[in-house]
Amino acid sequence: MRKxxxxxxxxxxxxxxxxxxxxxxxxGSGSGTKDDPYRIFNADQLNQVRNFAGKTxxxxxxxxxxDMTDWIAENNPSQGWLPIDxxxxxxxxxxNGNGHTIKNLYINRPNTDNVGLFGYxxxxxxxxxLNLENVNIVGKDHVxxxxxxxxxxxxxxxxxGCTVKGEIKGNDYVGGVVGLSYGNTExxxxxSFYGKIVGHDYIGGIISYCPSITISDCxxxxxxxxxxxxxxxxxxxxxxxxxxxxxYSYNNINGNDEIGGIIGHVExxxxxxxxxxxxxxxxxxxxxxxxxxxxxxxxxxxxxxNGSYANPPFGITLQDCYTNSNIKGNSNIGSLIGSGYKNMDxxxxxxxxxxxxxxxxxxxxxxxxxxxSSGYSNSYFATxxxxxxxxxxxxxNSNLYRIGNIVVCPASxxxxxxxxxxxxxxxxEQPLPxxxxxxxxSIGLSSLKLQATYAGLGWDFADTWQIEETEGFPYFKxxxxxxxxTQTLKTGNTSLSGQCTSGAxxxxxIGDKVYTTQAAGNIWNLMLDEPLQAGNxxxxxxxxxxxxxxxxxxxxxxxxxxxxxxxxxxxxTPEDMQAISSDxxxxxxxxxxxxxxxxxWIETNSSTDGWIPVTLRGTLDGDGxxxxxxxxxxxxxxxxxxxxxxxxxxxxxxxxADGKAVKGTAIVGGIVAINKGTVEGCMVTGxxxxxxxxxxxxxxxxxxxxxxxxxxxxxxxxxxxxAGGIVGENQSxxxxxxxxxxxxxxxxxxxxxxxxxxxxxxxxIERCYSEGAISGYAIAGVCxxxxxxxxxxxxxxxxxxxxxxxxSALRVLxxxxxxxSAPATTDNYAYEGMxxxxxxxxxxxxxxxxxxxxxxxxxxxxxxxxxALGWDMENIWDIDEGSSxxxxxxxxxxxxxxxxxxxxxxxxxxxxxxLTATVLPENCRNNTLKWSSDNEEVATVDENGLVTAVSVGxxxxxxxxxxxxGVTATCKVTVSPKLVTSVTLNKNELTIEKSFxxxxxATVAPDDADDLGLIWTSDNEEVATVDENGLVTAVSVGxxxxxxxxxxxxGVTATCKVTVTPKLVTSVILDESELTIEKNFxxxxxATVAPDDADNLSLTWTSDNEEVATVDENGLVTAVGEGTATxxxxxxxxxxxxxxxxxxxxxxxxxxxxxxxxxTVLAANGRITVSxxxxxxxxxxxxxxxxxxxxxESDVIDAPRKAMYIVTVSGKSYKVIVP
Length: 1219
Fold this sequence. Notes:
Blueprint: H1 2-15, E1 38-40, H2 43-47, E2 58-62, E3 66-67, H3 69-75, E4 84-86, E5 92-96, E6 101-103, E7 106-108, E8 118-121, E9 124-128, E10 131-138, E11 143-144, E12 147-152, E13 157-160, E14 163-169, E15 174-175, E16 178-189, E17 192-198, E18 201-204, E19 207-209, E20 212-216, E21 219-225, E22 228-231, E23 234-245, E24 248-254, E25 257-260, E26 263-277, E27 280-286, E28 289-292, E29 295-300, E30 315-319, E31 322-328, E32 331-334, E33 337-342, E34 347-351, E35 354-355, E36 359-361, E37 364-367, E38 370-375, E39 383-385, E40 388-389, E41 394-396, E42 398-401, E43 416-418, E44 423-425, E45 428-429, E46 441-443, H4 451-455, E47 465-466, E48 475-476, E49 484-485, E50 495-499, E51 505-510, E52 513-518, E53 523-527, E54 537-543, E55 553-556, E56 569-571, H5 574-582, E57 589-592, E58 596-597, H6 599-605, E59 614-616, E60 619-621, E61 626-630, E62 632-637, E63 640-643, E64 648-650, E65 653-656, E66 662-669, E67 672-675, E68 678-680, E69 683-690, E70 693-695, E71 698-701, E72 704-706, E73 709-716, E74 720-724, ...
Parallel strand pairs: 1-2, 2-5, 3-6, 4-8, 5-9, 6-10, 7-10, 8-12, 9-13, 10-14, 11-15, 12-16, 13-16, 14-17, 15-18, 16-19, 16-20, 17-21, 18-22, 19-23, 20-23, 21-24, 22-25, 23-26, 24-27, 25-28, 26-29, 26-30, 27-31, 28-32, 29-33, 30-34, 31-35, 31-36, 32-37, 33-38, 34-39, 35-40, 36-41, 37-42, ...
Antiparallel strand pairs: 44-45, 47-48, 49-50, 50-53, 51-52, 51-54, 54-55, 90-91, 93-96, 95-99, 97-100, 98-99, 100-101, 102-105, 104-108, 106-109, 107-108, 109-110, 111-114, 113-117, 115-118, 116-117, 118-119, 120-121, 121-124, 122-123, 122-125, 125-126
């Protein structure tokens, strides 16, 4: 209950009428009445209009231009403007734009219906004098610039004087001004749209869908892309009352079905009255069915009630309209009406209208006024009367008329048609038709420029029409007079000029570019920012003040030259090539002036689908030039989509872009998809990929193909395909002669025919050969199948590198039927070494009519072999006798470049170097090279590029193409001496005592190297040096690396690590080897160390019995106790050298044994004093070992050290101890 209560409360609040004067609803001035409207000056106030969505009688006035950019950026930059909902109880809503402009309205709501400045309106009222500029609107369904959707049969809303400029995108029901009107919209008048519209179904330049409405004085300049029900003014009307009058549409429409320059579809009911009048269109329309410059399709839904009509008949009238259009589609294509169905006896009248179209092209039911008309019975057909057809081209495969199919024209009336209207049936220009209801009454062009011609048909020149007598065709009274050119436009022009209404504005359209200029008097001039290109269509509109725009006058920029054999049209750019399609000059001659690269043109103009194939109706002489960068994705793919009967292309070389292919979903050929003329002397290189008919030169040949060559690949993945190196299918009465293919042919379908020359043949194939690999279902080297009595394959040669099939594979001809006869075995030849497999099983091949006569490769390299088959080896074919297959000299692809893997190389004497060459292009006729050396004393080279170094020096090794092109490539070879490869020392490590030397010995390999010399070096000469012979001298303690380096520059080395050790002691000698010492006495030992320059002369003194004697670090021995001890002095340098002294320690108790005398011997202070002796008496002093230490007469003798001594005086001895 609570939920229901809230729901009802919410509904009640929403439906409550709040007084208009509430300040919260509008922030500006005004009270919202008719006399005092709400005045809008800014985006916020514009946004507040939505606050009145439930109010009665609301009036608004736009008082200033508004730029929405900042407001949208601040409020909703992602989705943009929220459309205003003016619906429900708003009984009257009046919005006066006052001529002001709302700029940069942005709406991005792709999932929202009812999108526009106003999204939904269900109200009486008016929206008028409002301009929208630079809109960008995206919605789902019901999308329009001003209004998305209006829906009510009880209210009437008018929109007038509004202009929308920009882009609008949606799904269904998309219009430039109004999306969908469902109910009553009183009128749309004086509205305009300029820009682009994209949608799916129901699309109109002004409104997409309208029931009962009057659309008047509206203008569109628009580009529309969609699917069905599309019109330059309105898309669709299911109406009780529809009037479209005085409307102008300049449009470019791309869609599918029911497309009209004014309205796409009209669906009428009982009592309905529909009128389309005083309308003009200039349309470029591409679609499928039911296409027209005015009305695409009409249909009557009235039903038969018990055999009689319950209601009065309805009426549809199309009168006083004209169109300048270019329309291309499939079926039901007409200038004024595409087609229609009439199911009751009411009036359907088309009168007082004319078509002055550039071209109407389709496959069936193409008419200069109406494409096709049908009815419930013969009495129910449209009445087409007093109209004029002035079409410049009508083309179809069937049902082609100057007026239209099943036309009812009363006997008292007539339709006129230009006598010389070019009419093409299956690309063949037709004879002039007889006058009839379907083809009208013939009349000359000069008469069609006279008012009397039209006045005689009842045209109203008092109020509706006017004409510039003898100058042009009729136009409306309220329309500006058309301009004129004062020059014939040629490729390269950079200025335009002409005449027009004095002071008028002249608008010039060239492709996507728009130029505007003002006439000075009645003369206009215009400078262009880039030169005109052949094929450019220059359209001019003039608008004088107070008048509607003029009809468009157009001139196609023509090629240089006059198109005659002596002065052909000059083709020098891709644009010139494209212009061939639009040139209708009878039997025109064209000539290539230079090579043409299509790469940039494709990237700029058609980057998705590639080259747009050209239709050739004349003769193109390529003069041996190359068209490169070709690729395409088309239904019928090729440089040309078709050559019409009598057309010819000669002497053209085509190079397909690397990594790309010429593709066709139906028919594809490197030169042309469908050939009904002549292809002669043409060459293709690259990949061709296609559908049902795929050929290297032509997909389907209904004419002549001769002297052509293909290299590369031909491939198709279609289930059913006919693929060949030259043609996919050769039709009956057609011929392929003197052609050859080196292309690989590959098909994967289970019902495919593939062969080197033709996949399938009904005509003649002669004097041709193929050498590529063939793989597929049913395959052959020359032709996969002959069908019909005219089919023959003779004088052909199969030299294929392999045949790999899943069903059948034969060397020459795959089979024949339906009256085709088998060729003689000797009629065709085949290479004996050709591998042939079916499902990977090698086939046993015998000479027979389908496999031809076996020939060896040597035979196939001989001129006589081909002369035996009737080949013209003097005037058509060339051959390098003994080394090549036949070729065309003009198509002989010579070597253009040779590159070697080395351009400079250095190799040692007696070594070798393999040079490899890359030869371009890959499909050159002969890639054989001749190798040579300009100095064989230095280096030689064999036939395979193997270079052998002979002696030191330089030589140029050159690879020369043998095909006569003169192309070479050279490698400069420098032969260097034979180098040392290794140096080995007798020692890798060496230890030497300082000051000593050691000899290192080196072994150098190979022993026949040109220079066996070595350089000996030390990396630390403070430790060790080495002389030129490897003698190492130890200088000081440390480490040094001694290196022997080859002097020949090879860089080869060997190293010995040298460690220098210190100089050692070799001997230690003591001054005493035996010594006797009295206990408590000392004795000094002195050591002599040799050599005296040993690095460490220090000694370590030791006693082996320190209880007997000790020794200090200086060698001083102290007697400790009686006994014997060995005192040793050992070198500290690690040499292990030592010397010893045996010390005997004695103990003397007093000096009792010393004889006394008057002589006194005393010892003190290191001296011995003798007193009481005679003056000249000799004194002898001994140590305890008995060694004489002193002999003399002195009374005082210095003792060497503290010790016990024996002093002898006067024959007596004394023991003294010198303390």
